[in-house]
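INFO batch 0412 | record 1 of 1 | parsing
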Amino acid sequence: MSTHRPLIYLIAGEESGDRLGGPLMRELRDLLDGEVTFAGVGGPMMMDAGLKSLFPMQELSVMGLTEVLPRLPGLIRRINQVTADIRARRPNLLITIDAPDFCFRVAKRLKGEGVPLVHYVAPTVWAWRPGRAKKVSAFLDHLLALLPFEPPYFEAHGLACTYVGHPVLESGADKGNGSAFRAARGIGADAPLMVLLPGSRAGEAGRLLPVFTETLQRLRATVPGMHIVIPTVPATREKVENAIAGLGMQVHLVGTDREKFDAFAAADVALAASGTVALELAMAGTPAVIGYRMAPVTAFLARRLVTSPYANLVNIILGREAVPERVLEDCQPDLLAAEVERLFTSSAAREAQQQAYRDALSALGYGRIQPNRRAAETVLAILRTKENGAA
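INFO prediction complete | emitting tokens
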């Protein structure tokens, strides 16, 4: 096939990858004037952009050693299925998105078979297992990086790596309507409001919800009349509903990005899992406390392998703890509650964190770059290079 109507195969294994894949597909369609076909595995956003998923993406949404191992036979079957489908379709290009436990196994099998292998989201070699940079360079053809300091780690091993920017910068997280959110839910303008974000994966939420709900109980006396908003995704909705049953607090569940961003704008404080949501909160200017736990075996390995002193992306970018982090054994209700209470009561603490947000976002090119477009343009350049090389 030529790039006049290329077939692009995409694989996303979790909700965060789906959020990258959907906008990327739309930008590619725009750049190619609609003359493009997509196939692969993805979630709602990618399907809305025109993908017919080979199987439900949720089957791949696992993280951590103890979560992957029990499901390894099923994952291997899906790896075999996807690899066979790619070989049968012979796409012009394969884009794997995050989910390295699955995506890298597929890419390794396809190395040298004439399909350019592009991976979107660089492995965090700057945080742990730096040897991965050399390993992925052995089978990938191109890497799309979200953070500006990532390309040199991979270029040192001969892997082409393009910094495209973090797509959260175009998410709309900075455009929430806080007053409308409060009015629609009967929350007074001065009522204390906290957003609770236990993560988008079922296992992650299952570990954090007990800690977070106990934190809420401890805050009941010190922050009276507090309202709680919890954004959910299908993978976590039931766990959230079970966790808040009988909590005896004013809890509002929201399910769309628009509602979530409105809630960010309305909130005084957030208590959140570590992840991309850190940048969404930064864009909204919502002061936050980060809590994170891993499965025991994964945590054991993390303590010995992780080299980054921080988990939160804002802190990583700035090289200091601007956003309070309480992770692993420090992720305890009393410690989290103390940090949340401090943000509720100290305007200086809130303002300091908001200034840190502005500094971190500036370093990422907020307001100056269009990450989704950059990613699509890079993919199109790879397609054209392949076509010209074959001509």
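INFO post-check: The chain has two domains: 7-165+369-390, 178-363.
INFO record closed
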